Structure formats: C-alpha cells, structure tokens
C-alpha cells in the first residue's frame, strides 16, 4: 500500500512541477522577483521529489504546499505576461532554472 501511495504521489509531484515548465511565457518587468519565486518553487519540487523517491511518506503533506505555490506562481506569471520582456541576463537565468528542474525530473524518475 505504501509503495502504491508513494508511486502515485511521485507521479503527482512530477506532473505538478513539470506542468509549469510548459506554461510559462517569458514576458515581465518584474521578472527578478518572479524568477526568485520560481527558483524557490523548483527547489521545493526537487526536495519533495527526492523524499518521494526515498519512500518518505512525509512528502505527501508537502505536496499541498507545492500545489499552493504552483497556483500562486501561475497567477503571477499570467499577470507578468502582460508586461515587457526579459533582459538577456533574466532570460539566461530563466532557462537555467528550467534546465535545473528538467534535469531533476529526469534523474528522479
């Protein structure tokens, strides 16, 4: 039973984290702050995914926090789409963050 729950929560975590890679459009004046929040979100995702992979059931309670963060971040990203684009350094940072999450997802599957 624990194995099934762990497997399901791992899948949920990965899907939740991965879905935001595909939905982000890079346009905003407030990207530094938004990129900081996105980085925190990625670090939370990776931390929880590592716990899930190890079979740590406590990670299930952290899924709710990740989902809340994802909703908040998604709203902010939607608002950011209405403003101007990224600077070169911000674009590089954004790509670096996406790459970090993608590699973590790949390594933890």
Number of domains: 1
Question: End-to-end distance, in Å?
Answer: 20 Å
Largest sheet: none
Q: From the alpha-carbon coordinates, what is the Rg to the nearest angstrom?
A: 15 Å
Indicate the proportion of strand residues: under 5%
Shape, per Cα inertia axes = globular
Order of helices and strands: HHHH
Q: Show unreliable segments.
A: 1-8, 21-28
Q: Roughly what percent helix?
A: over 70%
**What is the tally of helical segments?**
4
The count of DSSP E runs of length 2 or more, i.e. the number of strands, is: 0
Mean pLDDT value: 74
List the helices and strands and how they pair.
Layout: H1 2-23, H2 31-53, H3 59-80, H4 88-108
Provide keyphrases for this structure:
globular; single chain; 109 residues; mainly alpha; disordered N terminus
How would you describe this protein?
With 109 residues, this protein is an all-alpha fold. 81% of the residues lie in helices and 0% in strands. It is built from four helices and no strands. Helix 1 runs antiparallel to helix 2, helix 1 runs parallel beside helix 3 and helix 1 packs antiparallel against helix 4. The longest helix is centred in the middle third of the chain and has 23 residues.
């Amino acid at each position: 039973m624990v194995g099934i729950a762990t497997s399901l929560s791992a899948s949920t975590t990965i899907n939740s984290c991965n879905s935001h890679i595909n939905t982000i459009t890079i346009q905003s004046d407030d990207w530094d702050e938004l990129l900081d929040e996105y980085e925190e979100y990625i670090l939370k995702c990776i931390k929880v995914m590592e716990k899930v992979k190890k079979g740590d059931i406590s990670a299930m309670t952290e899924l709710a926090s990740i989902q809340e963060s994802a909703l908040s971040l998604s709203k902010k990203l939607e608002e950011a789409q209405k403003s101007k684009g990224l600077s070169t350094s911000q674009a590089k940072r954004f790509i670096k963050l996406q790459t970090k999450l993608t590699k973590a997802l790949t390594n933890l599957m």
